[in-house]
């Protein structure tokens, strides 16, 4: 299309076509860095929102006279919507344009954030969070894919590390900003802070993100798969909330778990037989993908458990929201440091799987120490920092293992899967904390940490580098015989 025809194209076409970057940026050797930096807006915004919201739980409980089990749905409704939409949105983006979907995601997310700040009831706030999650799904399904397709292959792990660091920066600023904002301006401004960031990201993305070059063939989307997945996850987490003090009768709680099991079974069967399944079983047969996704789920469960637990423990002990936020900042700060610096500090010959094992082992050590030491600021700060360092080492290497298993034309699908299991892990981390605190009284924090330690051990087991078997005596190896 010539510049003249592009200038005079009708406005509907301009809304469904990806705008090319300026020629100078497109030809620049560092153009891919600008693209990665732009994606970091979305990574920062999503994680800032995720971590900052946990600081509003106390204020929301007071203003809306609600239980913790009810208030947690401000987070869970958002996460469940993400889980249901990430993969289908990723597939649509692979076919119709990742840049286009990403920019519209920012528009929806920013508008919904403003609506959250104006909500007049807890139910309205939860509804606005669902709308916000629709925009977040359009962002997150494409963030890893845009990095993967923009960065040169030799710089992929470093680029994913920068993106992970932007996520960690959002996580790191969230508790401190949340504490300051809630204490001074009120919880509504926690959501309003997304608006200026979203506007800046829309402008930057329009000019700095590359158009989608390799697109997958548009195929039909199975409408039943997302419904079954949403039903299974929602039913399961509602059941956990009922057990955590939501106030539902026993029969309703049992029915919720039964619906979750039936929908989960139906979802698995549907993926095997549907013409266009939501989750293609073929990539999951790759060990790098299946173990990587399981690790990503555990990784984010371990990350978000303390983000909910620590503020509740400290504020219940008499600390202010600002004090709790400052202490909690140590966790994402460690994550950001590791995600940014691990590439320079660790030996280049260290494989991605070995980096995963190192990060998971560090997280295990931090959680084990937290389990036996006092849950107070002097001891918590260095241990949260160490936990963040471990998870920040693990995450970029694990993402690289998964994304290298997908062809470039399916990067959106792979990124959607990564973020889908992250959302599940985050939701399970929040639900786990609420459940254990409700049932365990004063021993709840220790029980929560023990559960998180068990998950971290499972992540470590999945991340271990495979042992190389030595060739049998008298039997040459395949490599030697070639």
What would you say this structure looks like, in words?
The chain is globular. The chain has 482 residues and is an all-alpha fold. Mean pLDDT is 78; it is low at 1-8 and 466-482. The protein contains 22 helices and no strands. The chain has helices at residues 3-7, 11-16, 23-27, 31-53, 57-64, 68-71, 73-96, 98-117, 122-150, 156-184, 188-192, 194-208, 224-246, 250-273, 281-284, 287-316, 321-328, 330-345, 352-372, 377-403, 411-440, 444-463.
Kindly state the percentage of residues in helix. Answer: over 70%
Task: Tell me how many strands there are.
Answer: 0
Radius of gyration: 22 Å
Strand content: under 5%
**Count of helix runs:** 22
Keyword list:
482 residues; mainly alpha; globular; disordered N terminus; disordered C terminus
């Amino acid at each position: 299309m010539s510049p003249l025809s592009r200038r005079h194209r009708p406005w509907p076409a301009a809304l469904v076509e990806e705008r090319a970057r300026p020629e100078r940026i497109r030809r620049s050797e560092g153009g891919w860095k600008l693209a990665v930096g732009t994606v970091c807006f979305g990574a920062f915004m999503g994680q800032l929102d995720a971590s900052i919201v946990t600081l509003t739980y106390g204020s929301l409980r007071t203003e809306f006279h609600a239980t913790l089990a009810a208030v947690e749905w401000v987070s869970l409704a958002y996460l469940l919507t993400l889980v249901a939409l990430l993969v289908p949105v990723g597939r649509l983006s692979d076919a119709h344009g990742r840049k286009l979907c990403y920019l519209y995601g920012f528009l929806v997310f920013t508008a919904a954030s403003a609506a959250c700040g104006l909500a007049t009831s807890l139910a309205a706030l939860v509804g606005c969070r669902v709308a916000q999650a629709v925009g977040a799904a359009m962002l997150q399904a494409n963030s890893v894919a845009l990095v993967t397709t923009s960065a040169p292959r030799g710089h992929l792990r470093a680029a994913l590390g920068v993106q992970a660091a932007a996520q960690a920066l959002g996580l790191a600023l969230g508790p401190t900003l949340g504490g300051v904002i809630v204490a001074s301006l009120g919880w509504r401004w926690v959501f309003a802070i997304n608006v200026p960031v979203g506007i800046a990201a829309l402008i930057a993305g329009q000019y700095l993100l590359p158009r989608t070059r390799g697109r997958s063939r548009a195929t039909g989307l199975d409408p039943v798969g997302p419904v079954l997945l949403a039903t299974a996850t929602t039913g399961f987490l509602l059941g956990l909330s009922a057990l955590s003090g939501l106030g539902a009768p026993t029969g309703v709680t049992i029915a919720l778990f039964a619906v979750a099991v039936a929908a989960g079974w139906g979802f698995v069967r549907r993926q095997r037989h549907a013409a266009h399944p939501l989750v293609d079983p073929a990539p999951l047969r790759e060990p790098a993908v299946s173990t990587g996704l399981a690790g990503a789920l555990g990784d984010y469960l371990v990350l978000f458990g303390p983000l909910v637990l620590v503020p509740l423990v400290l504020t219940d002990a008499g600390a202010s929201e600002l004090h709790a936020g400052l202490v909690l900042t140590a966790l994402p700060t460690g994550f950001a440091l590791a995600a940014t610096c691990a590439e320079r500090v660790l030996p280049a010959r260290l494989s991605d799987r070995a980096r995963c094992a190192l990060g998971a082992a560090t997280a295990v050590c931090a959680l084990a120490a937290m389990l036996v030491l006092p849950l107070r600021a002097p001891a918590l700060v260095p241990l949260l920092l160490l936990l963040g360092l471990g998870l920040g080492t693990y995450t970029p290497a694990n993402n690289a293992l998964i994304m290298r298993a997908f062809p470039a034309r399916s990067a959106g699908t792979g990124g959607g899967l990564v973020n889908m299991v992250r959302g599940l892990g985050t939701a399970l981390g929040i639900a786990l904390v609420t459940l254990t605190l409700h049932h365990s009284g004063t021993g709840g924090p220790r029980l929560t940490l023990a559960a998180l330690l068990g998950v971290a051990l499972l992540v470590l087991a999945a991340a271990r580098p495979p042992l190389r078997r030595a060739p049998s005596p008298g039997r040459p190896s395949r490599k030697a015989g070639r």
